[in-house]
Design goal:
This is GIY-YIG domain-containing protein. With 372 residues, the chain is an alpha+beta fold. The protein has three domains: 1-129, no CATH class; 154-302; 312-372. It contains 15 helices and nine strands. It has helices at 6-12, 21-31, 35-44, 117-125, 146-150, 188-200, 206-216, 234-247, 261-270, 285-295, 304-311, 313-321, 329-338, 344-351, 356-363; strands spanning 51-54, 61-67, 73-74, 102-105, 108-114, 139-145, 160-168, 178-184, 222-231. The strands form two sheets. The chain has a seven-stranded mixed sheet, with helices on both faces. It has a two-stranded antiparallel sheet with strand order 1-4. Helix 8 crosses helix 9 (261-270) and helix 13 runs antiparallel to helix 14. The chain is globular and about 60 Å long. The chain starts with 5 loop residues before the first helix and ends in a 9-residue tail after the last helix. 33% of the residues are buried.
Length: 372
Amino acid sequence: MKQIQKGWWKHLAPREIVPLRGEVQALLEKYMTGSAGAEWFKVANREGGVFRVRHGQKVPVFHVVFVRGRPPFVAPPQVVKPGHRCVGRATPLVGGELNPDELVLEPEIRVELVTDPEFIAASAQGRTKIDEATVLQPSLIFTCPARLLVAPRHSPDRSFVLYQHIFGSGGNYPIDGYFYVGVTQRSWQKRWAEHRRGIDSGSQLLFHRKFREELQQGRVTYINHKVMAVTDDLEKLYASEEWLVEEHWHDGRRLNMIPGGKSGLRYLRENGLLGQRIVPLPDERDEIVATWLEQHPRKGLPAPWVAERWRDNEWAVAQICGREGRLSVSQVRAIRALSKDYCAAEIAARIGAKNDAQVQRVIDGETYTRVD
């Protein structure tokens, strides 16, 4: 079988988890001796390979847990539940239109390092319940599409990374907590170190402030660093970030203060935070926003200029519908009118949509909600 690539593992995994590659590899090889593991690995090796899953079916994640004083073990697979936080696109590989309760999920590798004494004691005693407020060392979790580790296509030195930082406690473990989406041309670990300095120094970025508040209230028992994609094409990276943030824009757990990708740059320029001819690196946008917040403190609104813009429905609709590949206002209205009599596939053919799924999301009220 293919090995977890050492160079990519070192590039993407947190430094505390890097030394654990050999043990993860050994457990992975054992996992693949079963039919479920063999199928998981087959899909993970295929470019664009995904699973099409429904509520109640297993999430395709190979999850290894390291607890001090115990051998590492593979955690039982979770099942998809209503409200599972996921933004996934239908691809030609899954075939057909997605049902309302279906998700498209990539095979992932997840490694969890448990270091808090309360967690360790509970594990040794077989306890499943603890007082989470007593946890002082949140469990460190690293999640990554398996393909990036076993069948990478790019070079670590010339790649951009799209990532999420997810944190929380209790029932939102391990992926349903508060989250921040970011991109970097360096390692995400360096960006995380910079975020932690901002958190500790009192930064007013929403991500930093919410993390600080939840930590002080004893509501952070895990921190999940999730790599979403790796590419050597900055345009594709910006497009993916923009789409990911936009699809989560109305999610109360989202901690990004501006849209992603080039829409974020447009926000900065239109509100005077960035010169028209200045093109910041992906890593520099947070610093621009943080500086503005320091210079324009307004209690109650972490980013009032964003909120004011989005209250202007005409402006918001122009942002949502004005980009290439998006539905126009007239197409959205046509979908809603036609959905009374036609299925998504028929509507897509009539109005010239990209695919059936794009139409179905409008029918389900998941996208283009600002269009009257």
